[in-house]
Amino acid sequence: MHIESLWVNRVRALREVEIEPTVGLNALVGPNASGKTSLLEAIWLLTRVRSFITPRIQEVIQHGAERLEISARISTREAREVRVGLEKGVNHTRIRYNGANLKTASDLSSRFPVNVLTPESHQILSGTPKNRRRWLDWGTFHMEPAFIPVWQEYCLAMRQRNNLLRRGGGPAEFSVWEETMQVKAERINPWRQAFLQALDENLPPVCEKIGLSEPVRLRLVPGWDGEQPLSLALEQRRQADQELGYTLQGPHRADVAFLAEGGRPAARYFSRGQQKLLLIALALVQCRARGEESVLLIDDLQAELDQAHLRLVLQALVSEGIQAFVSSTDHIFPDGAVFHVEQGRFCAVQGVTR
User: Fold this and answer.
1) CA distance linking residue 9 with residue 156, whole number of Å
2) 171, exposed or middle or buried, with CB in 10 Å at 0-12, 13-18, 19+?
3) How far apart are CA 352 and CA 345, in angstroms?
4) Could you write out the DSSP letters of every residue in 236-265?
5) Which CATH number is 1-113+292-354 given?
């Protein structure tokens, strides 16, 4: 899957921007605050209906405008052309896919997968378990679209149990919701594990290709003692959870361990450059994890990478055949299409054949 044409209007400083990217590497080159990140943000908005920079859409909509608009023409693996559109204001969202209205962002994300790496992506490795769960669950969803409704049903049952913990309830009431949580967890955990296993198996050759020599393994921390059923663990913890007022065990407390050689946490023992290489390797593998290529967005590629590793990453981006949009302040791209960006204006200067 790749974007054949992209139109962006009223996203920050971008107004009536239209580009025709190549199917491989697309470089956005220009000074800081020129609009490079805004274009990446627009692609992400088109697929997730939210920004990767801020939760407040009014900060993304151009000053003085009521709404933003983004549309794209996309070619799928079956060589079928589809059109995608987003119109979003503070209190209004309209998502279009081939002329039909979609109800939720997940409906679009399942059809048009996109991965993004920003300077804040280090939080996947060194941030809180919540950061890693968010990354884990979106990756799992792209491999198994049924994950989202099952996860929502689990969260509903957990909230009901939390209500009982705070207001009081009998064993029978607790058992109903704990059994539901158990049933949903029995589906959630294998899906999460399958996603991590797919990454784990395909990660080593990609790490080697981009110069990350130390092996890394991924392990799921399920959120409770997986040796016993979740419902039993919840029953045994009722009194302790009542004192807290919330449920302390379950898939909602899961984590991912990124382990370097000897079982060392990668976030603690890897340099910032090594961490970025690991995140790039994960993104490259993840782009193929569901059997259909995702679009990859990388903001500020050269940050924290020396010249040797930067060359290896660029070679990998080209050789993997994934459509990538990469921002940079310098022209460091021997291959692919290059768009020069200045004050929100985009000019193709290299490699665009359309």
Assistant:
1) 38
2) exposed
3) 16
4) HTHHHHHHHTS--SSGGG-EEEEEEGGGEE
5) 3.40.50.300
Secondary structure letter of residue 57 according to DSSP: G
Task: State the pLDDT at residue 290.
Answer: 59
Beta bridge partner(s), residue 221: 255
State pLDDT tens for residues 108-146: 887 888 999 999 999 999 999 999 999 999 999 988 989
Name the superfamily (CATH) of residues 130-271.
RecF/RecN/SMC, N-terminal domain (1.20.1050.90)
The distance in angstroms from the start CA to the end CA of the chain is 17
Residue 55 backbone class (left: φ over 0; alpha: ψ -120 to 50; beta: rest) = alpha
Closest residue by Cα to residue 341 from 99, 31, 19, 14: 31
What pLDDT, in 10s, does the model give residues 137-160?
A: 999 998 898 999 999 999 999 999
Indicate if the alpha-carbon torsion angle 171, 174, 176, 182 is positive or negative: negative
Q: Are 336 and 26 in contact (CB under 8 A)?
A: yes
Radius of gyration from C-alpha coordinates of the chain: 22
Does the structure show a pLDDT above 50 at 285?
yes
Is the alpha carbon torsion for 328, 65, 91, 145 positive or negative? negative
**Dihedral (C-alpha) 88, 155, 144, 260: value to the nearest 10 degrees?**
100
